């Protein structure tokens, strides 16, 4: 300090210190906010299911090798490239049915799931493990607070999932 005034250069360094102390962390925080997240991950992490607008897509039966948004069978679907297993129900198999009854009931369950999914927006809620042993995401499809799987069970097209598959031919 000379003549009651700070030495040259000292004032400028002190003037920058608050900017560096506050500005750099703020800039880093803003940069993190601009990193794009995968839509489904962002929705699961940042938006509670009760506030999410839901999935409002047109579903059809899956066909061919490319599967993006479609229904495989009565309890398995693809949503935007992610394979989902409805965690609360089990439906008859259609790929390798044990008998004609299982095949017919499985086809009906699949067609009904397509109809239910196309009847308006729904959300996929996690309730338990994230994935099954086949890598499918385990979710419950919910519309207006009610599981779509419960509808299939009530209509006799599915059973509640108990941890093991039922013999539909017995």
UniProtKB/TrEMBL annotation:
Q: Gene3D superfamilies, alphabetically?
A: 2.40.50.90
Superkingdom of the source?
A: Bacteria
- Please report the stretch or stretches of sequence annotated as the TNase-like domain: 71-158
The record's annotation in Pfam families points to: SNase
Locate the transmembrane regions by residue number. none
**What's the protein called, per UniProt?**
Thermonuclease family protein
């Amino acid at each position: 300090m000379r003549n009651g005034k700070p030495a040259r250069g000292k004032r400028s360094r002190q003037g920058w210190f608050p900017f560096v102390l506050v500005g750099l962390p703020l800039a880093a925080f803003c940069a993190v906010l601009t990193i794009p997240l995968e839509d489904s991950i962002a929705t699961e992490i940042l938006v509670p299911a009760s506030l999410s607008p839901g999935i409002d897509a047109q579903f059809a039966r899956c066909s061919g090798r490319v599967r993006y948004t479609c229904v495989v069978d009565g309890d398995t679907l693809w949503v935007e490239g992610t394979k989902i297993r409805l965690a609360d129900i089990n439906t008859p198999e259609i790929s390798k049915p044990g008998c004609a009854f299982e095949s017919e009931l499985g086809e009906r369950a699949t067609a009904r799931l397509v109809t239910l999914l196309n009847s308006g927006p729904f959300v996929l809620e996690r309730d338990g493990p994230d994935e099954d042993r086949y890598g499918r995401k385990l979710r419950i499809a919910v519309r207006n607070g009610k599981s779509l799987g419960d509808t299939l069970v009530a209509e006799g097209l599915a059973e509640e999932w108990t941890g093991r598959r039922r013999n539909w031919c017995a």
